[in-house]
User: What shape does this take?
Amino acid sequence: MKLNTPAKFTFFICLITSLLICIFFIVNTYFNDYLLAFILLIFFMFLLYFILKKQFYEKIQIIYKNIYKFKGTSNISDLNLENADIEAEDWANQKEEELLEMKKNENFRREFIGNVSHELKTPIFNIQGYIQTLIDGGLKDENINLKYLKRANVSVERMINIVDDLEVISRLETEVDELDYENFNICNLINEVFDQLEMKSNLRNISLVLNNNSNSEIIYADRNKIQQVFMNLISNSIKYGKENGKTDVRLFDMSDKMLIEVSDDGIGISEEALERLFERFYRVDKNRSREIGGTGLGLAIVKHIIEAHQQTINVRSTQDIGSTFSFILEKAKN
Assistant: This one.
């Protein structure tokens, strides 16, 4: 009989107890009552110990070991039944959280694949249309051949930008692309970015301004990666800023660290969009983003780079007033 229920266990104990009582009364005429009672008690204790150990304790211990393998439980003293239910509940809650996270990641993966497909589909279809027109006779038409080739080239460049950004994110996520820390002048770096984006800002008449309120200009970080952060943030401020507006980059002291803010006076971001702002391919204004050529990966790259520096990227924004992105970097190490 398997003692796998409380009723069966109770019946078995009662049966053994009754049997021992019967034995006591049958053989007590041949042995001293106290000696016989002591022998039967010892026998009952060992029997009860064996039953509890084999039927309950060891089975619970196996479950305990499987749940908490990292504890290295190897003997009975390692198992505390008073805490087993609490630890089992904690494990169940942890597994539930892992399951929810897996479902969330699965949804994210599905959405990501759909986004990649959608982003690549548009330039691919454009290229196909231009090439087909040229094949159908447009190649000999001087009015359209060069124009369509240039348009196809623009679509190819867009695809290359998407693939390049995806590779950057992949390297950052897999930690293959390690950070190359060094001391460098952040003001010089920001001015270099201003120079690279000058033509783009001039087209919309947006002023690029640096305000250094820190007592230092030297920080300790990966210069190339931080340059990419500024390129993406300042480029976005130009794309989504108001014409004749301004982009401010401000530096502030925070003891041995520096607070950096990139602000614009553009269209701003709605409160519900802020939570998803750093997701790959997420766009606040889908139509305008594609019109101005964004890949939808810039802010995701920014987030990965800042987090690789063990910091956090934050954003505050008000619609039709502007947005401010901020993060912290360490000052130079001697």
Remarks:
- The chain has three domains: 6-79, 108-174, 181-331.
- Residues 70-77 have pLDDT under 50 and may be disordered.
- The first strand starts at residue 181 and ends at 185.
- The two ends are 76 Å apart (CA to CA).
